[in-house]
Amino acid sequence: MDATPVGALLLCRADPETVRPLAHLLREGMLLVPAGEEWSVLVPEGRPWRETPSGPAGHPGPAGHPALSGIPEPAEPVDRVVAGWAAALAVASTWPVVALWWDDTRAGCVLASGFRRPVGYVWLADGTPAGEDEAMTTFAARLDLDPVLDVQALQALTRPDPHADGPARLRTLLGLLTRTGVELRPGLEPGRSTEALREAAQALPGAGQIEWAGWRDAVRVELDAVESSGLGPWMLGPRARTVATAQVLVGAPLALWGAFRRSDGWTAAGALLLTQGVLGLAYNEVRDRAAPGRG
After folding, report:
1. Domain residue ranges in the chain
2. What are phi and psi for residue 75, nearest 5 degrees?
3. pLDDT digit string, tens, across residues 173-225
4. What pTM did the predictor assign?
5. Which of 108, 160, 222, 244 is close enough to 122 for a disulfide, judged by CB 3.0 to 4.6 Å?
6. CA-CA distance, 280 to 247, in Å (whole number)?
7. What does the angle CA 183 – CA 188 – CA 194 come to, to the nearest 5 degrees?
8. Is 90 in contact with 97 (CB distance < 8 Å)?
């Protein structure tokens, strides 16, 4: 177990079979577990925040890489990684994603929904609020929580509480999310290490492994999911082509920006958008050629 627990959970408002094809495109080993009737949870293996950008801690990078100076580069912050993953999943789907994360200095949450700007909140390790109060109002509105009672409960998380540390704040937030149908299984609690979370997830019924098997297999999985889900007709036509083109135009520079910043999370967000756009355009082309009257 880590000396200082670092971990994250990605709550997706969709069933596991709907989440699975998109999760493959994040290129991160994850466990996918049901989390209620309308929710699933992704438990990542945490490679970006457990390794340096050049490889496992202590291993030198390729020629010319700063790691050759003998000074190891820090692993990527967990909050930046999961924010990119949450944004990637949300912009490529019709369901929201709530990312929970924690390390030895802070804890926080990020809500991503479609192309809207993600909203998040942060607490220090001792539970001291360090975010904008307005974020909780937006959080409640996007998840269709009660605008009075639930907002009041969320706003309580923005006030000092000497008896609640950072992970305890996240557990309180999870308690409120049960009103939307979230049901996390035992062992998947904020504050545990990445290893402990994965060990608990592996023992749960319905847990499935997400592994990156290359772009060809990922696209095939995505196409199979489209065909089996009945969503094919929604990916056809001028409007669908416009959306797909926009995904390509946004995804390409975002992936390059993430690579330049060495941010696995935002690189994945750009790559997923780019893949979704290319897939949409290809799907339209294939279906057009297969349509009656086309030779």
Report:
1. 7-210, 215-290
2. -65, 160
3. 999 999 999 999 999 999 999 999 999 999 999 999 998 666 555 555 555 55
4. 0.73
5. 108
6. 9
7. 150
8. yes
Rounded Cα distance between 224 and 231, Å, is 11
Rounded CA gap, 146 and 25, in Å?
A: 34
Using only C-alpha atoms, the chain has a radius of gyration, in whole angstroms, of: 20
pLDDT at 2 (0 to 100): 44
Spell out the SS3 assignment of the chain: CCCCCCEEEEEECCCHHHHHHHHHCCCCCEEEEECCCCCEEEEECCHHHHEECCEECCCCCCCCCHHHHCCCCCCCCHHHHHHHHHHHHHHCCCCCEEEEEECCCEEEEEEECCCCCCEEEEEECCCCECCCCHHHHHHHHHCCCCCCHHHHHHHHCCCCCCCCCHHHHHHHHHHHHHHHCCCCCCCCCCCCCHHHHHHHHHCCCCCEEECCCCHHHHHHHHHHHHHHHCCHHHHCCHHHHHHHHHHHHHHHHHHHHHHHCCCHHHHHHHHHHHHHHHHHHHHHHHHHHHCCCCC
Instruction: Please check whether residue 156 is in contact with residue 138, taking contact to mean a CB–CB distance below 8 angstroms.
Output: no
Q: How far apart are CA 106 and CA 6, in angstroms?
A: 10
Length of the chain: 295
